[in-house]
TrEMBL record:
It is an enzyme of class 2 (transferase). Its cofactor is Mg(2+). Residues 538-891 form the PEP-utilising enzyme C-terminal domain. It comes from Geodermatophilus sabuli. Substrate binds at residues 579, 634, 766, 787-790. This is Pyruvate, phosphate dikinase. The active site is at 454 (tele-phosphohistidine intermediate), 853 (proton donor). Its EC number is 2.7.9.1. Signal peptide: none annotated.
Length: 893
């Protein structure tokens, strides 16, 4: 009638493009049916019907009639009637959502069997045992999934019968024993439900369909969806399909197969076969399967048909497919196919193989791989667990595999590394002073802090393995040891292994292999060499194509010559953020202390004069490494307290000294200054441009060092391209003040050297007010770079340093966000501010250069956003550079 909705589709009516409506399984069964492949007939009840059911608590009124109609078509195709006493049609009722949710929802097989039709099945199949076994399987599955009976009750009853027969094997039970099992199962149903197992085949089918709908909201499905970020209101489709049997004898069987090796991508089919068995037997691993190749000897014609079918599927889907099939009395049936999951390495290899086979083009190859897969390929890997003892599992903060001797301070890490020892730095938590130790160590292990803790962020930036928040470990840095939950004490010098991809920590050495992809990026492996491996060759081809199609530039965040050079090898087109703060730590910290404590201009100038040549040298080396490419130097930004001694520690020191009657003048002065500068939330305190405005001469000194370094570089025949970036600006007036001062310094240096060193002057946009007033700021800035770390912090009001440990896990659990906004850009909020600033900035200054240098610059999803809003470039840590190149291309396609 008019307006009546279609809730049911025959397999011959759908296609693979209807996943949302028919679910993945239904859409692919339809596709195979229309390809003329041997799929048992059946129909699909749509996800729409499921959503209706979940909303109304009952099925749509038209559903029953539509099911009847499609069931009739199915019965005609099979020449049998559902549950017929003489020759029953049996069906399977299976779930199948649009997104793959393996094993999360329900399936009921052998629907249509009852006390009468079991006799008919026995006659038709010629096997009483088979018929009674099928019947007991139905009651067991139906009882558990449809009627909600505890599955163990059935298992116990089955075990009892086996025990009475003195066996442990199902196969030793004959038809009579299985009929006895059926009697006991039916008694369990009656006792548990207060009603008999339904004998009406259609009632069985309808109940099974509703049970599949209900299983959408089972606990495990809900948890799985939350973790995989699958929408909770999508619903599942239900596939009703004629049963075929792989357990009718030695001429029957069942198997799973891939059209290529999903582990390596190697060509050639790959799979397992199990003779005289049904699908669940393979999954349950009850009996041993044989390699698919053995099927050729068992059943040559079925094997050949299977091979043809698989090659047909691959060229049709133009991708690796995985399949499930059954052979019933030498006849092949296809039960399922889908584009198969694969490892990261296989994804790259298969993509270029398909290009070479003419099935896809290079654009499509770039779409077929992801930045996350590339990132996975760049980490060294543990080969296997070996016999090392696992101590605990923390948070997987920065992937990779690190083995080394445990050390408990940054100084020790540096000293041991100098002696040629591989070390793992173990700390309760890290702070900026640990940087040198982190650089020296193979990896970092902390017992506190989450994935945005200092250790995690810095480690990811360096591509250094890090496990953080391993709370079960008691780290005692004073005694240089930690204690594992089982009481094992690990002392300085003991070898440990940490896996930054899983968070696992072992005592002892787990063997590691380096990443061939990184060796290729480093220039150590030639992709064109005869013996180059397939993976390296594929990565090379795909990234070369990515560079041709992307619009976004890719720069790096680097503040050492070594990182700059490496990023350049990895494809960076300049530096988007050179943080100058670490240039003030270590030995230079005393100079900074002097600067802060300076009384009067002379003392201050002396401190600045001492710092300037050191700064100049830093910049010189970086300009050389990035010769011909832009280098954005950010003037000093960190909160002041990072340069000053800890207040509590200093107070204690003074108190002790006073008690002994010899507190010295210098320490007392330091204490007074530290007290005066102490801030309860230093992230919102005296940092960035505020510091530049409050400490006279500081920014001018940095600008002079930049200009002097650039001049020298130029005089030596180089091509330095400095850009000066002012952090934490919220109002154009702040920028203006620093800008004037900087321009003056630049002019002075140019004049004294007689060279024309141009430097763009721009600002970070990382305070919400700056984003909102971008049109006022742009006339004073030649470029904007979005500092999305601070912008996220200030937009959400989340402290970058504390939030993970404090409450992020609760937010993630409750689904307030699926991923931390510090990891992946919050498009609606922070992203909105970025859009406003892009629009305002470009309106006021059309040629304004726009980039981003927060952590998000290397996050795949965020890269797509930055492409869409029209930034000129993203900047990220050296190890993320290839990832950003790839994702920028995927965003452009
Ligand atoms: C930012 O805030 O996004 C940024 C890049 O600066 P930092 O992380 O150094 O504060
Ligand atoms: Mg910042």
């Amino acid at each position: 009638g008019t307006g009546a909705r279609t809730w049911v589709y025959d397999f011959s009516e759908g296609s693979k493009d209807q996943r949302d409506l028919l679910g993945g399984k239904g859409a692919n069964l339809a596709e195979m049916t229309n390809l003329g492949l041997p799929v048992p007939p059946g129909f699909t009840i749509t996800t729409d019907a499921c959503r209706y059911y979940l909303e109304h608590g009952s099925t749509p009124p038209e559903l029953a009639d539509q099911v009847t109609e499609h069931l009739r078509t199915l019965e005609q195709a099979m020449g049998k009637t559902l549950g017929d006493a003489d020759d029953p049609l049996l069906v399977s009722v299976r779930s199948g959502a649009a997104a793959s949710m393996p094993g999360m929802m329900e399936t009921v097989l052998n629907v249509g069997l009852n006390d009468d039709s079991v006799q008919g099945l026995a006659r038709q199949s010629g096997s009483e045992r088979f018929a009674w076994d099928s019947y007991r399987r139905l009651i067991q599955m139906f009882g558990k999934t449809v009627l909600g009976i505890d599955g163990e009750l059935f298992e116990h009853a089955l075990d009892e019968v086996k025990a009475e027969q003195g066996t442990e094997l199902d196969l030793d039970l004959d038809a009579g024993h299985l009929a006895d099992v059926v009697r006991r199962f039916k008694a369990i149903v009656a006792e548990q439900c207060g009603r008999d197992f339904p004998m009406d085949p259609r009632e069985q089918m309808d109940m099974a369909i509703n049970a599949v709908f209900d299983s959408w909201n089972s606990d495990r499905a809900v948890i799985y969806r939350r973790r995989e970020r699958i929408p909770s209101d999508a619903g599942t489709a239900v596939n009703v399909c004629a049963m075929v049997f792989g357990n009718l004898g030695e001429d029957s069987g069942t198997g799973v197969a891939f059209t290529r090796d999903p582990g390596s991508g190697a060509q050639g089919v790959y799979g397992d076969y199990l003779q005289n068995a049904q699908g669940e037997d393979v999954v349950a691993g009850i009996r041993n399967t044989v390699p698919l190749a053995d099927l050729e000897a068992i059943d040559r014609s079925a094997y050949e048909e299977l091979m043809q079918t698989m090659s047909r599927l691959e060229s049709h889907y133009r991708d690796l497919c995985d399949i499930e099939f059954t052979i019933e009395r030498n006849k092949l049936w296809m039960l399922q196919t889908r584009v198969g999951k694969r490892t990261a390495g296989a994804a790259f290899v298969i993509a270029t193989q398909l290009v070479d086979e003419g099935l896809i083009d290079m654009d499509e190859a770039v779409r077929r791989v992801t930045g996350d897969q590339l990132a996975q390929l760049m980490f060294p890997r543990f080969v296997s667990g070996g016999d090392a003892q696992q101590l605990t599992q923390g948070m997987n903060a920065s992937p990779g595999a690190a083995v080394g001797k445990a050390v408990f301070s940054s100084e020790e890490a540096v000293a041991w590394e100098k002696r040629g020892e591989a070390v793992v730095l173990v700390r309760r938590e890290t702070n900026p002073d640990d940087l040198s130790g982190m650089i020296a160590a193979q990896g970092v292990l902390t017992s506190r802090g989450g994935k945005t803790s200092h250790a995690a962020v810095v480690a990811r930036g360096m591509g250094k393995t890090c496990v953080c928040g391993a709370e079960e470990l008691q780290v005692d840095t004073k005694n240089r040891q930690f204690t594992a939950p089982d009481g094992t004490v690990v002392r300085e010098g003991d070898v440990i292994s940490i896996d930054g991809s899983t968070g696992k920590v072992w005592l002892g050495e787990v063997p590691v292999e380096p990443s061939s992809v990184v060796r290729y990026f480093e220039g150590e492996l030639d992709p064109d060499a005869e013996d180059a491996d397939d993976l390296v060759r594929s990565v090379h081809r795909i990234l070369a194509h990515a560079d041709e199609v992307r619009r976004l530039g890719v720069r790096t965040n680097a503040d050492t010559p070594e990182d700059s050079a490496r990023a350049r090898r990895f494809g960076a087109e300049g530096i988007g953020l050179c943080r100058t703060e670490h240039m003030f730590l270590g030995d230079r910290r005393q100079l900074v202390e002097k600067l802060i404590l300076a009384e009067g201009d002379d003392e201050r100038q002396a401190a600045l004069d001492a710092l300037e040549p050191l700064q100049k040298q830093d910049f010189l080396e970086i300009f050389e490494a990035m010769d011909g490419l832009p280098v954005t130097v950010r003037l000093l930004d960190p909160p002041l307290h990072e340069f000053l001694p800890d207040l509590t520690e200093l107070s204690v020191r003074v108190a002790v000294a006073e008690a002994k009657g010899h507190a010295d003048e210098g320490t007392l002065r330091l204490l007074t200054a530290v007290r005066r500068l102490h801030e309860s939330n230093p992230m919102l305190g005296l940092r960035g441009v505020r510091l530049g405005l409050v400490v006279p001469g500081l920014f001018a000194m940095q600008v002079r060092a930049i200009a002097e370094a650039a001049s020298e570089c130029r005089e030596a025949g180089g091509d330095p391209r400095p850009e000066i970036m002012i952090p934490l600006v919220g109002a154009v007036q702040e920028l203006e003040a620093i800008r004037e001062e900087s321009e003056q310094v630049l002019a002075d240096v140019c004049e004294s050297h007689g060279v024309d060193v141009r430097a763009l002057i721009g600002t970070m946009i990382e305070v919400p007010r700056a984003a909102l007033t971008a049109d006022e700021i742009a006339p004073s800035a030649e470029f904007f770079s979005f500092g999305t770390n601070d912008l996220t912090q200030m937009t959400w009001g989340f402290s970058r340093d504390d939030v993970e440990a404090a409450f992020f896990h609760a937010y993630l659990d409750k689904g307030i966000f699926g991923v931390s906004p510090f990891e992946s850009l919050d498009r609606e909020g922070v992203g909105r501010l970025v859009e406003i600033a892009v629009e305002g900035g470009r309106r006021a200054r059309p040629e304004l250069k726009l980039g981003v240098c927060g952590e998000h610059g290397g996050d795949p999803d965020s890269v797509h956003f930055f492409h869409a809003v029209g930034l000129d470039y993203v900047s990220c840590s050296p190890f993320r550079v290839p990832v950003a190149r790839l994702e920028a291309a995927r965003a452009a396609l």
